[in-house]
Amino acid sequence: MTSATSELLSVQGLHVAFPGRRGAPAARAVDGVDLGIRRGEIVALVGESGSGKTTLARCLLGLVPPTAGRITFDGAPLERSGRALKAYRRRAQLVLQDPSGSLNPRHTVYDIVAEGLRIHGHAGDERAAVAEALSRAGLRPPERFFLRYPHELSGGQRQRVVIAGALVLEPEFLVADEPVASLDASVRGEILALLLRLRTELGLSALVVTHDLGLAWNIADRVAVMYLGRIVETGAVEQVLTAPRHPYTQALLSVLPEAPGAPVVLTGEPPDPSHIPTGCRFHVRCQVLAGGEAERVGVADACRSRDLEVLHGGDESQVACHWARARAEQPTAGGGGGDGAAVRPG
């Protein structure tokens, strides 16, 4: 296990709740998360829409205030003052999903990339910094793109401009929110290869937010699966995605084209985060509980009534599931490997 001292970013007991309307209960978008990201590590945060992934990511960047908990960056607690957040955002940058929506159509590529330098009072050679960022993002020769506008670029080129705008401040940490979701399949691989190259060349750490398990397989060192505000399974990407232990992870993987067997169709939508179920928060949709398997190992009542503790932020394999833990304790369970499909996402 890697020492916690090598972590660049650490989260302990993070909660984010949004007040309900007209006296309704608060929506617990992030409901207890511990997470550590080491220097030079890429962690994929996966889950359905509404699981809390984007809220957690925005909280890590200081864009959404936590209701409770602590965020530590480079060994120091993240402070909420305007000056402290401005200094932090030089070191931690966001890459958004839709380059068309995040690029000002009235600004040239040069001005878009230079904007961060101007906000933070860059004292060096602005033109050289912009050129270097564009070159690192794969737009070469960079001068050819200086006076072009977003509408004159392809989707892949626009995403590279977004990445260049993040790189120009020489950050240590990137949050990439669905970084290739809006791109054609032919371009996706190029952008993923770029992110991996930047990690190698610059030592960047990254949190990649995605619903795409194939993307997680291709880019991440570690994966954290999120459901209804909590991380329910985490570990090395190959371990989690080839031998998933949590029924939710198994269901997500079962719908991939490469997965053997029939897809698991989850009933209903994720519960309202203002009315989180008692017990395991997944139990109302759980195919293992519905199929009687939890009853057979004696945990069905626990699934419905006993909450699971928050997984700690370490890098070893962890799962928040009464059934998976009960099976792991049984000698015949094969050491806790899941019944889910062993699949190598493409």
From TrEMBL:
Keyword field contains Nucleotide-binding: yes
Pfam families recorded: ABC_tran (PF00005), oligo_HPY (PF08352)
Alphabetical list of InterPro entries matching this protein: AAA+_ATPase, ABC_transp_ATP-bind, ABC_transporter-like_ATP-bd, ABC_transporter-like_CS, Oligopep_ABC_C, P-loop_NTPase
Molecular function terms from GO: ATP binding
Domain ABC transporter: 9-253
Keyword set, alphabetical order: ATP-binding, Nucleotide-binding, Transport
Superkingdom per UniProt: Bacteria
Family according to the record: Belongs to the ABC transporter superfamily.
Descriptive protein name: ABC transporter ATP-binding protein
Organism: Streptomyces lancefieldiae
